[in-house]
Specification:
The complex is a heterodimer of chains A (122) and B (428). Chain A has 122 residues and is mainly beta. Chain A is built from one helix and eight strands, in the order αββββββββ. Chain B is mainly β and 428 residues long. The chains are: A mainly beta (122), B mainly beta (428).
Amino acid sequence: MKLLKYTFIIAALITVLFSCEKDDGITGDPENDKIPTITSMNAGRDTIKFGGDTTLIVCEAMGGSLNYLWEVDLGNLDPVGDGSTAIFSGGGCCVGMKTIKCKVSNSKGYIDGTADVFILEP
Amino acid sequence: MVQLMFLFLNHRDAFMRVFTAIIIVAIFVWGGKSSSAQCCTAGNPVDASFSGGGSKGVLNFSTSFKTSYSSDYYMGNEYIDSNYMDYSYFNFQNFTASYGITNELNLRANIGYFYSKAYRINRNGSPERSANGLGDLGLNASYNISKLIKNKLIILPSVGVILPVGVFDYVDNNVVLAIDAQPSSGALKYNAGVFLSKDFLKTKLNVFSFNLFEYSNTIESERTPSYKYGNLYVNTLGASYAINKWFLPEIQFRSEYRQRAINQENIIDYTGGHNVFASIKGTGKIGDLSGNITIDMPVYKNVNGWQLTNKYIVNVGVAYRLNFNKISHSTNAIEVPADIDLKTIDVKVRGICAMCKVRIESVALNVKNIRFAQYDLINQTLSIQYKKELNINRLFESLSSAGHDNEFMKASNEAYENLHECCKYERN
């Protein structure tokens, strides 16, 4: 009887030790356990003229609930939709090669992606 | 030309009233399609004013609010109908403090804050982009070399630095704004200038010139690998006339030439240019407090390529002068019990500059039984309040010993020659 009792206790301990998982507060979305990954980032047109021409920059990423932050040194960016796409245009001060950066983040961290667009004189 | 000069000198008060009226009308006539300084430059707006100089121990505070709106495109010197950017504007507050370390050496600091710096692209669905925050910090030192070269012309060379202490990575709706939309310029800049000034017509008329060169370092940051604003050359020529001791209108012509910017060693053709402005300013004074309003209008414009330019700039400011000298403090008075009976008298005393004012007031307050002294530089009149026991001759003797002719006693040649060069009024 004692042997059965101890066997039961040991089995219960083993079950508890090997079946508990770490709870990080995120339920139902295993992709949030990882830093985002950018699957593709590109510009619809890699050459535009300043003063009215626009191009779509698309930043496709995976990683659960994502935030997008756009940046370029000169020019105008307007995110649309869920923020993974931005409309880019530039004025006269922006002539030349522009590197548009998309910073994708979730609760685990962030990753940067870039796309180049050349702005020409009209 | 000579006849016109004599006509002006003989009827200068009437001339200045007419001149002021013409300027006021011109503001409304030119206001329709006027525009002003180049827009779309990062950092604090160009400030061609000069508040250096001043006496030892005198602290000047000033703050001004500047608003600007831009919606006109120019190509070279012609207006063009471009619809890329709908508009841009800024609302900016500048704070300046300057202090006289000595009568020659003056230190100045200024910092700016953008309440808003915004623009909108002319495209359906494009929102207004706006930033706010601290701009750049400017530090400047000027030195009056008039005494060194024994000249009545005020000559103040200055050197300074502009530090990009403010916001350079403002985020607006998930977009880090472009560098030219940020409050701070992001660039360390150096400047050197010289201020020239001379009084005429017993200090009623002041003619001045301020000339500045600003060199911008390359911005090397995570945001931009290598961007350099064009160097800036500013030249001003202006004049102010004291209609009375409370009101001082001023007109100024200012040339701003900015070289093209360079991005990653490539010259950006559609930046920089040459602009000349006429600036109208009115200043009102009550004691040590003054207020001013300035309107800038372009009279010549030639931008590189095509660029957005300002429609107007209006600047409203106030300034306060605090005198830390031992006896002549801001109220120029010694505290007395209310029941002491004081008499008042005005005395004509020769003097031509702020340094003279400080000296004359100090000398007067050092005379026994004088309780209040204030010198009016424009009318060259010293007003004193004194107890009836005052020996008035002591006042006249003290003023003449200090080098200042007065209506009852003339200063000796030796005392006059000991005055600072900029204090040497013309002697009859």
